[in-house]
Design a protein that fits this description.
Elements (H helix, E strand, L loop, with lengths): L9 E6 L3 H12 L4 E7 L2 H11 L3 E5 L7 H10 L6 E6 L4 H9 L4 E4 L4 H13 L3 E2 L1 H13 L5 H7 L4 H11 L4 H8 L3 H15 L4 H10 L2 H5 L2
Parallel strand pairs: 1-2, 1-3, 3-4, 4-5, 5-6
Helix pairs in contact: 2-3, 4-6, 6-11, 8-10, 8-11, 9-10
Length: 228
């Protein structure tokens, strides 16, 4: 155990080339007794070395850095034979392709750097529990990027075949980036009913968030066959 840690605390490593960002993150995360920042790194190469040395529970990782960027760090961690820390990617940008790449390379979460402190703290605790986290501000962008990547996957098609007609319609609208309220207006349903439909969709598609569901819908070919 690191000297800074207390039993039961979530240990965190900050990897960002901006010292002001690291200082701000320390202040935010240090305000929660369940979290402790045990180290910092200013680039991806240093970050990998610190991960190896400190063995943090969670890494907050900038996506744009010198030497090695965040995506390169994720790829290195994914190639390791031993399980690594859970990684939350931080960025001031929110291009959908970057987020999709980060998620595919093993990121457990993706947040904008201007996220409110409670959101940041909740995200760290969520990924430590094993729950994926995606900032609401970038969900629509990511779904749109997922929908642009043409692909057909037999496993996705089999999972999508389990959907009822209403679930299928809700899933397609969700995959196109519509909010629950917009889906409800389009389908003449209450928001509560839309949420219930999407909960069943997530279960049948074996996913736990809107981005993953959108990717399965895309991979199943539902966007192509239903048109725009």
């Amino acid at each position: 155990m690191n000297a800074d840690e207390v039993p039961g605390q979530v240990s965190i490593l900050l990897v960002d080339d901006d010292p002001m960002v690291r200082r701000g993150l320390r202040l935010v995360l240090g305000g929660d007794p369940g979290l402790v920042v045990i180290g910092e790194a200013a680039d991806g190469a240093e970050g990998l070395a610190q991960i190896e040395r400190l063995q943090p529970d969670v890494v907050l990782l900038d996506i744009r850095m010198p030497v090695l960027d965040g995506l390169a760090v994720l790829r290195r961690l994914r190639s390791r034979t031993t399980p690594g820390p859970r990684v939350v990617v931080l960025t001031t940008y929110h291009t959908g392709d970057d987020v999709l790449t980060a998620l595919a390379d093993g990121a457990a979460g993706f947040l904008l750097k201007d996220a409110e402190p409670p959101e940041m703290i909740a995200a760290v605790k969520a990924v430590h529990r094993g729950d994926p986290v995606l900032s609401p501000a970038i969900t629509t962008t990511v779904i749109a990027a997922a929908a642009r990547r043409p692909r057909t996957d037999p496993d996705a098609a089999r999972a999508a075949a389990e959907l009822t007609g209403r679930e299928r319609e809700a899933a397609v609208l969700m995959a196109r980036g519509l909010s629950n309220a917009e889906i409800g207006n389009r389908m003449h349903l209450s928001v509560a009913t839309v949420k219930a439909n999407l909960t069943r969709v997530f279960g049948k598609l074996r996913v736990d968030n809107r981005v993953s569901a959108a990717m399965v819908v895309r991979d199943a070919g539902l966007l192509d066959e239903t048109g725009r």
